[in-house]
Amino acid sequence: MRCFTVLGPSQTGKSTVVEKLGSLEGAPRKSSSPYGLNLTEFTFGNEAWCALDAPGPNEALAHAQHALLASDACILCVSSAPAEAVLAAPYLRIVEASGTPCILFVNRMDEPRGRLRDVIAALQDYTNHTLLLRQIPIREGDRVIGSCDLISERAWRYREGQTSALIAIPESTAEREHEARTELLEHLSEFDDWLLEELIEDREPSSDALYAISSRVLRENKIIPVLIGAAIHGNGMTRLMKALRHEAPPVGVLRQRLAHTGSVDEGKLVAVSFHAYHRQNVGKTVLVRALGEGLRQGASLGGSSLGAVQNLANGRSNLAVLPAPGDVFATVKSDHLPVPSLLTPGAVIAPPEWTEPPTPMLERILVPGSERDENKLSETLAKLSETDRGLKVLQEEGTGAQLVRAQGPVHLRDLCRTLSDVFHISVTDRTPSPIYRETITKPLEVHYRHRKQTGGAGQFADVKLSIHPNERGQGFTFGETIKGGAVPRNYIPAVEAGAREAMEKGPLGFEVIDVGVTLLDGQHHTVDSSEHAFRTASKMGVRQALSEGSTVLMQPVFRSEFHIPSVYSGSLVQIVAALNGQVLGFDRDETTKGWDIFRALVPGGALNDLARALRSATQGIGYFSKSFDHFEELYGKEADAIVRANEKPGTAH
């Protein structure tokens, strides 16, 4: 079986392309996962094929990346409108990073939305591979009525629902065809000395030789050939499928590529897991592509026994049919197989770095609907994060509530639906509160005496303390200048412990940071003094000082790193400024053509708005990662509102 992924932005007709390709020579067999990855098995040219139709939203980019891990080649569907080329930038990025041979298919050519050469020029800004036209459109006015193949120099007229009709190249197209063919040959000659000689000697190379060269450069991932059509009408589908059949590499090439990137012995690499999901009453289902021989139920794979091997289309197990190299199958009761991963009989190998999904930007607290749901939620989220690497699961600081980081609102909605439909856990979500702190702005001294007389031994401790602001980021410090044994040495650690305890919650209701405490003097009683007494005196004394020390609210500030196509970099300055952030600068992304890395400092309270604004400004393409940088003072109405909100039950941080 040969396997390819069809990927691209939403609304580019990917699913229609898969449907038409699968129906060229018979009825396809379809299956799908809850995450939107659709699989279509079909026969073409007496060969078995499997098409992986990756979900289109940018929030599901991780599933497209993982599908590439199991694919011999891919088809990238793009719009015929030049202005929409930037939407393909994330897909060109992962195709290039993966090293997967790619055919670019400009779909919906029946819609007059711009010139093909402008589409290619716009897309070329986002890939280091040369985008090489293999076909040009034949037009009547604004309407595309057919295509001309630049290698065979034959023209076809599209026919609705039928095979295209062979026609003579129209005179109106001849000049453009000659120009495009010359450009094609010049690019191909860069990878073939024989062709270069032919062109220098002004000899016309044969079509068979050109097809062979074109096939080789695609298999070697030297260029990205460009084909055109309109899948909804069936136009260009046969040519696209023939290109895959003749030019996409066999499964052995994928095995070599994965062995190289994973630093694993090619002879031991027998499979790759690329997708998984949970089904009600079934459990975890893992999708695997065989790369070697010997896979069957009970065989050793990834260091444990392979569970039941199932047919993709009907979910049935057939012990008599063993997966051959290239076959794609499902397996249950193989929970030991992580996704994605490279698999040998005895080990699981981590996938290449390029499979790492974009950093999730949307943070939400999941609130279970009942105590029963609360008990199940943590374990269930852990299971789901194993099958969805775009999801991160943490606990909220302070409350311990379940905090999830999702790729976006659609991803979050799908997560909540899975929790409900598959695991019967009802949840609502809320925005997490930023983690605020407080500190003091001026030094002061306090004298506190703790005296308590009850039946038996009493309590006595007297402390004189100096409390002062520390430098930002210095945290809590403690010192002492006791002379003459006014406070015995064995009680001084208790004084420090009491001071630390007082820092747990200040007058504004938050943890106190960046404050220093010095024990200056004190008194003790030979009978009534104790560690407990001095701890209590210190805690109450520091609390008294904090209430008099001009406390100020401290907000967290995060260092944020944005990954965006360069055309959007200018808009980020206004977004960051509107959120009271500070722009630090940007550089070209040296690893990805056409992208920038933009850096800024952003207040923690603005991160939710930042994610929303970034999605809107970059059409859902851009993403950012964040790391805590420092706390800074916050004054005025905003600070007052935060303090008032913190006084409500369950909101303290």
From TrEMBL:
Record domain Elongation factor EFG: where: 552-642
Record flagged with keyword Cell cycle: no
Classification via Gene3D superfamilies: 3.30.230.10, 3.30.70.240, Elongation Factor G (Translational Gtpase), domain 3, P-loop containing nucleotide triphosphate hydrolases
Keyword list, A-Z: Elongation factor, GTP-binding, Nucleotide-binding, Plasmid, Protein biosynthesis
A GO term, aspect molecular function: translation elongation factor activity
Pfam families on file: EFG_C, EFG_III, EFG_IV, GTP_EFTU
GTP-binding listed as a keyword: yes
Ranges where the Translation elongation factor EFG/EF2 domain occurs: 433-550
InterPro entries according to UniProt: EFG_II, EFG_III/V, EFG_IV, EFG_V, EFG_V-like, P-loop_NTPase, Ribosomal_Su5_D2-typ_SF, Ribsml_uS5_D2-typ_fold_subgr
Transmembrane segments: none
Function: Catalyzes the GTP-dependent ribosomal translocation step during translation elongation. During this step, the ribosome changes from the pre-translocational (PRE) to the post-translocational (POST) state as the newly formed A-site-bound peptidyl-tRNA and P-site-bound deacylated tRNA move to the P and E sites, respectively. Catalyzes the coordinated movement of the two tRNA molecules, the mRNA and conformational changes in the ribosome.
Protein name from the UniProt record: Elongation factor G
Originating organism: Rhizobium ruizarguesonis
